[in-house]
Amino acid sequence: MLAVTLAACDKPATPPSFQNTDLTGLDYARDFALTDHNGKPRTLADFKGKVVVMFFGFTQCPDVCPTTMAEMAAVMKELGPDADKVQVLFVTIDPARDTRELLAQYVPAFDARFLGLYGDADATAKVAKEFKVFYAKVPGKADGSYSMDHTAASYVFDRNGKIRLFVRHGKGPAPIVHDIKQLLN
């Protein structure tokens, strides 16, 4: 009698090799309770089954926010049909100016599938603390004007709503596409 062993059957699955910072297993960035730009209350559970990319910013940002949103639009385009399995969320850190109406104009201008999220000052502070996101109002040159300093990165969650990646600003779409494809497989 001939015994045949299939070594491939015993081989454990190889963990993904991410190009962005792997946050798998961290005990923060677990959830949020905000409202989307359509007026619907949202939590992370609403997007179960999709890879979620979450970015904190503000609509009047002159550089980091629009370039990140444009970069994510390029990622979605490059993903092709798989883009429908991804949800991009833009969380405002400037709720005083970023109204629901403004978010509804700004965020989907990059991709119709993107959602803007907002809360009052307390809800924003709570979510920023949970995600360890820094933000601060910086006085402008004109009376009453201001800008916002903030963490310039995105968080990526797998289809089960678990934090997986930290994506630094300005790396380009390729490493994000690479990592999202791994999370979708």
Automatic annotation (TrEMBL):
Transmembrane segments: none
Keywords: Copper, Disulfide bond, Metal-binding
Stored CDD domains: SCO
Disulphide linkage map: C61-C65
UniProt signal peptide: none
Family, per entry: Belongs to the SCO1/2 family.
Residues annotated for Cu cation binding in this entry: C61, C65, H150
Record protein name field: SCO family protein
Organism the protein comes from: Massilia atriviolacea
GO molecular function, one term: metal ion binding
InterPro entries for the chain: SCO1/SenC, Thioredoxin-like_sf, Thioredoxin_domain
